[in-house]
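User: quick one, sequence for these tokens?
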């Protein structure tokens, strides 16, 4: 539920206008229409479209294009995690007794049985979820943990823990980059934000779901080690920006919503576990950099197609985790409200401008929420980012 009601927001004339482009406006006026939309119904509708167009319901896995129109689904692995996360969101949102919960739990089981569409041959790791690309394994781990948290099915957590031990933390190497988790088995000298931010999240979510004290200490130590490397290399504490990678001792690439979101999320998890506000300060800077600098007229940027189309959905998910955490207020009194207003505005634009909902349309979203997606050319990654945003709106405005 929103931290501030629509009526309260309308009186908030002193609220910063920084997220809404060049025109000086009251953000409350920008997001007022969002309170007139039934977001629960909207979330239900986008979930139905995701399943209808992109899911192989017999396997519980997802196609890269609608109904595998272009035959590109064989190597579609890490997007599987984000697509299944949308259904986990729905499962958690739906009331007890709703038949869709049983259906979605069945999809989770099938997804698990089919290794989340892992193309690695032979399968890596004792549960078959490992991959040569470390970040692919990490996202699958995070989804397995969320599936466990939602359903209580122990094998999901067991698979996550084993995959982390076998194909993630083993890829930490001490080299000219000063440490870090390598991006892939074939890129031993490339230490990327995309492999280190999610690694912190994996360690911390395993920490949160583990009762064995020795194992917990190990996960927390892993997370701190990885965070210390990432925060001292790719993260800029003056701006909150996270660079893309470090290779052969040189930092390369600019900020992307993927890397901002995972660094922010990892820092937030460490704050929750330790109470150390150092971590929250870093998370807040990463969040504010994204909301101020990685936008076009207040809407999260079009960062491209392919893998990049998933990036903004990652930022939304971990910004939502910050928004849900009331303990943040004691250390940063305005952060949660800033995130709320930013996400509500993005969700409103996504729903009202980013998709053709007319009769005969397939409801496909595009890479930029400020422009209508194609009525016929559907791609999983764009659809998942938008679905993540609309599911978030069902919580933001309840």
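Assistant:
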């Amino acid at each position: 539920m929103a931290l501030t009601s629509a009526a309260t927001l309308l009186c908030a004339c002193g609220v910063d206008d920084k997220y809404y482009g060049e025109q000086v406006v009251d953000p409350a006026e920008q997001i007022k229409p969002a309170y007139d939309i039934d977001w629960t119904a909207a979330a239900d509708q986008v979930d139905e479209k995701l399943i209808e167009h992109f899911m192989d319901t017999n396997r519980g896995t997802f196609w890269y294009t609608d109904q595998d129109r272009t035959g590109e689904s064989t190597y579609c692995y890490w997007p599987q995690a984000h697509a299944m996360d949308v259904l986990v969101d729905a499962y958690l949102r739906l009331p007890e007794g709703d038949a869709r919960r049983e259906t979605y739990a069945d999809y989770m089981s099938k997804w698990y049985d089919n290794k989340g569409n892992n193309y690695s041959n032979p399968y890596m790791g004792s549960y078959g979820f490992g991959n040569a690309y470390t970040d692919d394994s990490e996202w699958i781990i995070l989804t397995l943990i969320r599936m466990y948290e939602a359903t209580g099915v122990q094998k999901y957590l067991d698979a996550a823990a084993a995959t982390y031990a076998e194909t993630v933390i083993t890829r930490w190497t001490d080299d000219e980059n000063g440490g870090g988790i390598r991006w892939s088995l074939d890129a031993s000298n490339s230490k990327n934000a995309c492999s280190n931010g999610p690694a912190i999240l994996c360690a911390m979510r395993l920490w949160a779901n583990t009762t064995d004290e020795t194992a917990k200490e190990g996960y927390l130590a892993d997370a701190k080690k990885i965070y210390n490397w990432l925060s001292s290399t790719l993260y800029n504490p003056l701006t909150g920006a996270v660079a893309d990678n470090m290779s052969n001792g040189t930092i390369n690439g600019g900020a992307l919503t993927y890397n901002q979101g995972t660094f922010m999320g990892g820092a937030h998890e460490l704050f929750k576990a330790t109470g150390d506000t150092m971590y929250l300060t870093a998370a807040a800077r990463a969040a504010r950099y994204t909301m101020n600098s990685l936008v076009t007229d207040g809407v999260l940027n079009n960062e491209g197609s392919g893998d990049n189309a998933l990036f903004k959905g990652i930022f939304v998910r971990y910004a939502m985790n910050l928004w849900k955490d009331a303990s943040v207020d004691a250390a940063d009194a305005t952060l949660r409200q800033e995130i709320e207003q930013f996400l509500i505005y993005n969700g409103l634009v996504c729903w009202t401008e980013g998709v053709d909902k007319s009769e005969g349309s397939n409801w496909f979203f595009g890479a930029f929420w400020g422009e209508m997606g194609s009525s016929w050319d559907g791609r999983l990654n764009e659809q998942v980012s938008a679905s993540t945003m609309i599911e978030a709106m069902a919580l933001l405005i309840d």
